[in-house]
Write a structure and sequence with these properties.
about 475 residues, Growth Hormone, Chain: A, mainly alpha, 17 helices
Amino acid sequence: MNYSPAAPDAAADPASVDAHSAALAGIANGGATVDIGQALDDGPFTLLQKCVVVLAALSIVVDGFDSQLIGFAIPMLIKEWGITRNAFAPVVAAGLIGMGIGSACAGLFADRFGRRWAVIGSVLVFGAATCSIGLAPNVAVIAALRFVAGLGIGGALPSSTTMTAEYTPARMRTFAVTATIVCVPLGGMLAGLFAAQVLPVYGWRGLFVAGGVLPLVLAVVLLACLPESPRFLARRTQRWPELARLLGRMSREVAPDAAFTDLREQRAEKHVGFTALFRDGRARDSAAIWAAFFMCLLAVYSAFSWLPSMLTAEGLSVSLAGYGLSAYNLGGVIGALGCALAIARWGSRGPMLLCCVGGAASAWLILGVGATQHTGWLIAGLGLHGLFVNAVQSTLYALCAFVYPTSVRATGTASALAFGRIGAILSAFAGAAVITAGGAFAYLLMLGAAMAAVLIALAVVRRHIPADQAR
């Protein structure tokens, strides 16, 4: 594949400029210049690419598993240590603050040093910290370790979704990214089923030790098997031989001395760095996406952190409360995949806005349903609410992958998620305060209001994924 790329903008990424110059030199010397964007976006979806997506998805499964363990442990810790629900708000907040910092830093790290090490490092950090919580002697130590775990949990999401986006052909990208993100509620659902069995036998300490061992084992697998992103390698001339070998493993044979360019992305990469998120007509979309992440994660983490506590406060057992969160997560898995398929057919605007309406309506429809009198209906309603909320939350990452080009994709996704973590941090205090003051009624009212705000934010976004791009 021979191309004559246009000169890049003077403000472009230095690595992209070097790659472009080398590509021109290759053409002048009669060498082949490979458009990595065309090779990946329009080519086959090979076994190696599928394996990378699976590894990224597994990283998110253990991420979702570990991030929700604290929600299942809090009711038992309150009983064992004889402390109040509000005493655990700083513990929940510490983990969410760590997630926010981890999200922001991981994106910058991934765009500078590579997606591979960002994913591996994140998994190692939250695995080791979660294991250590099993040895914690008091609430302060748990809070400190949850902060450290949050750094890794927050970093894994944007890094893994960026890796998935850059390994998947354009026609399958929305579904692949959503299927990766849907592993957060999948991990949470598994955590709920696991906690229901482990907590009565081994207690909360055994729960955290087991939850930490899983990501540590996965980190070893990632070290052995996870390659770097081809689009990241294309921007580092010194790593072009590595990229040529990687493409060969992906059934895209190129010459060992081939030069690489990325025409489609270079047209969009007029600026790089954090300020690029607000240039070239992206300011409105970035602000709206940040607001959507903020309110959606407030709703999601209000459920992840406080739903079991709300149900136990309404008179349900710890096991039944765990099943309530599992139903929420199961609904999320179904909703996210369904919404991704809808986006592939109709684009992102309509399906995402409808799911926002469903998220608000489903929370408000179960207002006043008695937890002990109508337990089945309440849990089913929570599952329906989880379906709509997680459908929106999961596809927000695919929207970010569409809005931002390669040079700032990880930064854009991570920045939006970091802003969303502020909403999640607010949920740590708001959830405890709302449940204490108004019980289930006030809690569900808050969840519905949050999704109504997400509806307004996503209606403002201009660059929604069109149907032809989603396909």
